[in-house]
Design goal:
Elements lengths: L3 E7 L2 E6 H16 L4 H31 L4 E7 L2 E6 L6 H28 L9 H27 L21 H10 L5 E5 L2 E6 L1 H11 L22 H11 L3 E6 L2 E7 H18 L1
Parallel strand pairs: 2-3
Antiparallel strand pairs: 1-2, 3-4, 5-6, 7-8
Helix pairs in contact: 1-2, 2-3
């Protein structure tokens, strides 16, 4: 992930911290300063936050190490202000293994809670948590639980549905020799952001909106598409399941994937139309209910 710095590795899994996490540390320090508290109290708040995110790392490692046991590697774990993100290559195909991976993170939290409870009961002279801390913990736990519940609900909604039911069939393509001005015309004419680049019937690249804008600013509208397109890209088969393609979109941090059948471009899937498909499915379930 961009704007992330590596802190270290655990079992071959890189641990990263995103730049925005530093803003959260700064906010904690500033809030203590504005409240007129001492440097010691400010440091105490920062240490508390770091300890809290240490628990987040252990939570994500629970998911990652369990997945590793089933032969599924994890690319990295990144700390963000809203929590941690473990990028697994994929989820297990076996439902039992998937359940173990999903439960591993919460199980780590339960174990840590039990240990901390025992330690606090046996310790003497430990000051009770302030009410800035209790609210913060409650908010943090709620946000983490909501995030995981949303992911589980989304995976359930996508299960067993082939990607061809949600793919975009009306889309524009470009050739490597096209000018960027032509790509700009396509962007302004419709909703499409990323364009498959096709040559002799084969997909040879993908031109993303970010790459288009970057190359436009550097070389102008007369530059060719092949100068801006990505030559390393993911594809999917229209018969693949939505769940697996969604996981690949997340893993590669792509906005879209070309769908290829028998070497020919058959459609396009994007995060936007996946979201629209889910909203339509939810509305249809509500109507049936």
């Amino acid at each position: 992930m961009k704007w992330s710095w590596k802190l270290g590795e655990v079992a071959g899994i890189g641990i990263y911290v995103h730049a925005t996490f530093l803003l959260l540390l700064g906010w904690v320090a500033l809030s203590h300063y504005l409240a007129g508290q001492s440097i010691a109290m400010m440091l105490n708040g920062i240490v508390f936050l770091l300890a809290l995110f240490g628990i987040v790392v252990l939570h994500e490692l629970g998911h990652a190490l369990t997945a590793k046991r089933f032969g599924i590697p994890t690319r990295d774990i990144t700390l963000l202000p809203i929590g941690g993100v473990a990028r697994l290559e994929r989820m297990p195909d076996d439902p039992k293994q998937e359940l173990w991976v999903a439960l591993a993170g919460p199980a780590v939290n339960v174990a840590l809670a039990a240990v901390l409870f025992i330690v606090l009961r046996l310790s003497s002279g430990v000051a009770p948590l302030s009410q800035f801390n209790l609210v913060f913990i409650a908010l943090f736990v709620w946000m983490g639980a909501t995030q995981e519940a949303s992911m589980v609900q989304m995976k359930s909604s996508l299960g067993g549905i082939p990607i061809q039911r949600a793919m975009i069939k009306d889309f524009r393509t470009l050739s490597p020799s096209d000018s960027l001005a032509r790509a700009v015309e396509h962007v302004l004419d419709g909703f499409q952001q990323d364009f498959p680049v096709v040559e002799d019937g084969r997909v040879v690249g993908v031109l993303t909106r970010n790459d288009l804008l970057k190359t436009l600013s550097q070389r102008g509208p007369e530059a060719r598409v092949e100068e801006a397109m990505q030559r390393q890209f993911e594809t999917a088969d229209p018969n693949e399941m939505l769940e697996s393609v969604f996981a690949r979109l997340n893993a590669c941090r792509c906005h879209s994937l070309p769908l290829v059948r028998n070497g020919q471009l058959a459609g396009l899937i994007t995060m936007d139309n996946l979201g629209e498909f889910l909203m339509i499915q939810s509305a249809l379930r509500g109507a049936r209910a």
